Amino acid sequence: MSPRVVPAIDQDPAIRALAQTWPGRILLVAVFAALLALLGFDPLVGLPAAACAYAGGYRWQVIPAATLLMLCRAGFLVDTELVARVASQERIAGVDQTWLAAGMIAVVVVACTGLLKAYRHLVKLTPFRWPALFLSAGFVGLVLVAETPIAAGMPRLLLWSFLATLLPYIWFLAYALNEAAAVSPPAVALQLGVFYPFWGSTLTPFGKSVSYLRKFEARNAEELAVTQLKALKLLVWVLLLLACLSALKTVVHTQLGVPEFDQAFLNFLSGASFPRVLCYASLLDNFAEDVLSISIWSGIIVACARLAGFGLLRNTYRPLQATTLIEFWNRYYFYYKELLVDHFFYPTFLRYFRTHRKLRMFFATFAAACLGNLLFHFIRDIRLVAEMGLSNALAGEASHAVYTLLLATGLGLSQLRTRTARAQQGWLRGRALPCAGVVLFFCALHVFDAPLDRQHSILQRGQFFLYLLGVNA
C-alpha cells in the first residue's frame, strides 16, 4: 500500500503514542467502527475486537467468548434452508428446526472435542495421518450414505442436518487436528474458539489456527498500536477500492454498455451472441471486478483481526505485480492458497517422488490445485447434492473439474519454469508482458470456472471459448 495514497500513520511516532493512550484508543475504535459502517459491514465487530486487543493477559479467554457470541448472532452459520428442503423432500412434518439445529450444534461440538482430544493417539493409525483427507473422505462418505435408499426418511434428515452444521468448520477442524498431533497442543476450548473467529472468515480459515495466530500476536502496547493503525489504514484502502469498483461498474456497464460475463455467455447459447470485442471486454471486466471484490471483503476481515491485535497478512496483495501464474495464485487469495498448500501440497510433497525433484514439485502442485481445489469446492457446494441428486451434482462438476485441471497444469509448469532475472529484461519484457500473460491466462480460464453453475455443460463452455477464438461463427 503506497503511503502516497493512504498516509503511513503507523510510522508516525506521535500517532503511535496517541494510540497507546485511552483517549486515542477510543478514537481509533470509533473511527474503525464508522469505516465498517460505511463499508456496509457490522460495526459491532469492533467491540469484541477492542475487548480482545485490550484484555492483556486475558486475550485468549476473550477470543472464544467473542467468537461464541458472534456465532450465536449468526445462528452458528447452519444452512437452515437446506435442512428444511430435505425435510420437505422426505415429507417429514412437525420437526422443530430450532431444536434440531441446537441438538446438531451440540453433537458437532462434542464430536470435534472428542476428535481433538483423541487425535494424538489416532494419528498413529494410517487412515488418520492426513487430517484433511480423513475429514474430506468422512464428510463425502456421509453424503453418500445420506443419498442411499436405506437412509430415507428421518435418518437422511439427521445426516444432512449434521453435515450442514459441520460444514462451516471442517477446514478449521483440519488445522486444529494438525495442532493436536503436536507435543504440546493448545487447549481444546481455545482451538474451538477460533473456529470461524469473531473477526470473520469464509469456509477458508482466516488466521488458520491458534499456533498461527500466536505468531502474529501483538506482544506489547507499541506493537498493538502499530497493528491497529495498520488495521485503520487497511480499511481506508478498502474504502478506496470500493469506490473504484463502483466507478468501474458504472463506466463499463452503464456508459460503455459492456455486458456482464454471464450475460455474454447466456446470449451466446441463445444464438444472439454479442460481438467478440464485447465478450473480450466482459472477460477483462470480470477479472478486474473479481480482484477488486476479493480485495474488499477479505481486507475487511484482515483489518478486524488486526484491530483485535493480530497482524495477519493481507489476503490479496498487489496481484497485478505478479509476473508468473504461481505468483499471482499466491497474491490473489493467500489464505485459500495456504489451505491447499498446508493440507494437500505438503503432505504430497513429503511422501511421493522424493528422488525426482521436478516431478515431485509438479505432482504436489497438481494435488493441491486440482484435486484439493476440486474437493474443496465440492464440499463447499454440497447442498447441490441434496437439491439436484448425487448423479446430477457430479455431472455438473465436469466444467469445474476441467478448470481445476487446466489451472493445476498451468501452475505446475509455472513452478518448473526457469526464471530469468526480471531486472535485466527491462520494464516491458520483465513486468508488463508477463503480467499481461498472467491476466490473459486467468481470463481465458474463467470461461470454464463454474463452481456454482450446474445448468451448462463443459461442451457449451467449450463452444463459447472457441467462439472467442474465432473458430466458429
UniProtKB/TrEMBL annotation:
Keywords, comma-separated and alphabetical: Membrane, Transmembrane, Transmembrane helix
Transmembrane segments: 26-46, 58-78, 99-116, 128-145, 157-177, 234-252, 295-313, 361-379, 399-416, 428-448
Coiled-coil boundaries: none
UniProt protein name: MBOAT family protein
